[in-house]
Design goal:
The structure is a single chain. The chain is an alpha/beta fold. It has helices at residues 15-31, 45-53, 80-88, 99-113, 127-133, 146-150, 170-183, 197-209, 225-236, 271-282; strands at residues 3-9, 35-38, 56-59, 70-73, 92-95, 117-121, 140-143, 160-164, 187-188, 215-219, 240-244, 260-265, 286-293.
């Protein structure tokens, strides 16, 4: 018996990821290899491997880069300390930080300068959070879960502000923000929400599709924060979900007796990977692909001037 695929749209690349990939692509064409990139340009192994073949070299530490080289900062952003190290090594820097992450950095700087203690909701070890934390390490406390707030109980803070990692689940941050506001009355939030519009849109589509499908696939890397959140949301809305990186990870046993399968992809997942997996699923009984559309995304961020921004 065959099954139907309900394919979420929007899915896959967001404007920040598209911009970062375009920056690295243009840099390789304009300057030639090697081009060094601090951290994976985006959290997707396939994208990284393809760039490595073209001469991109991905490093975690500035110390690994020869003096005077070309360096690209990944979409996730970096701390001022990393920028300073790059300057000292005389590196030609092209910044591919997502503008929405840059917004959070600017907010952190503003609040720190105005003597706020900042509660940054996010995953302590995520590269984006590390970059934001670096803006004011003595004035930022990372809040990952409710227990982190317990450590602040009984303490008095004159000025408190909340910031969030851009790729978190809207529901998770809502619960934590409510909890913070319950405990502290003098909280200031940025004028606009920090959670990225693309993260929000992809999560909304999963919420819409998951209750009506027998199984859900999120196509993306295990390292991708936003892909992991999409899987969690599908499960929260009542559907068994898998995070799969390529066709070799399809859980064949699970699709034997289903009538419907929901599919989306994380913000750093290339569309050709989604199509490859759908083609493979046709071998296992996928009969029809129905695209379910949500909000139309038409945001495009401009490129750095070094690459001839329009």
């Amino acid at each position: 018996m065959g099954f139907k695929i309900y394919l979420a749209k929007p899915r896959g690349f967001c404007a920040g990821v598209e911009r970062a990939i375009e920056i690295l692509d243009l840099a390789l064409k304009k300057f030639g290899p090697p081009i060094y990139v601090r951290h994976a340009i985006v959290h997707n192994e396939k994208v990284v491997r393809e760039f490595e073949k073209r001469g991109a070299i991905f490093v975690e530490e500035i110390e690994e880069i020869p003096e005077g080289s070309i360096l690209i900062f990944s979409a996730h952003g970096v701390s001022p300390e990393v920028r300073e190290k790059a300057k000292k090594k005389n590196l030609k820097v092209i910044d591919a930080t997502c503008p929405l992450v840059t917004k959070v950095h600017l907010e952190a700087k503003y609040f720190a300068k105005n003597d706020y203690l900042i509660l940054l909701i996010g995953h302590k070890n995520h590269v984006e959070v590390q970059g934001t934390l670096g803006e004011a390490p003595d004035r930022i406390i990372v809040i990952e879960k409710k227990e982190d707030l317990d450590k602040l109980d009984g303490k008095k803070f004159e000025k408190l502000a909340i910031l969030t990692q851009t790729t978190l689940s809207v529901d998770d941050t809502k619960d934590l923000i409510n909890e913070i506001q319950k405990r502290f009355k003098n909280i200031v939030k940025p004028k606009a929400d920090d959670i990225c519009y693309a993260t929000q849109n992809r999560q909304d589509m999963v919420k819409r599709l998951a209750p009506f499908t027998d199984l859900f696939f999120v196509i993306g890397s295990k390292k991708s924060s936003n892909s992991n959140r999409l899987k969690e949301i599908a499960e929260k809305y009542g559907t068994k979900a898998y995070l799969i990186n390529d066709k070799s990870e399809i859980p064949v046993k699970e699709i034997e007796n289903i009538n419907s399968l929901g599919i989306t992809s994380g913000a750093s997942t290339p569309e050709n990977l989604v199509m490859e997996i759908i083609e493979e699923l046709k071998k296992y009984g996928a009969e029809e692909v129905i695209e379910i559309r949500g909000i139309e995304e038409n945001i495009k961020f401009s490129l750095p001037t070094e690459l001839g921004s329009p």
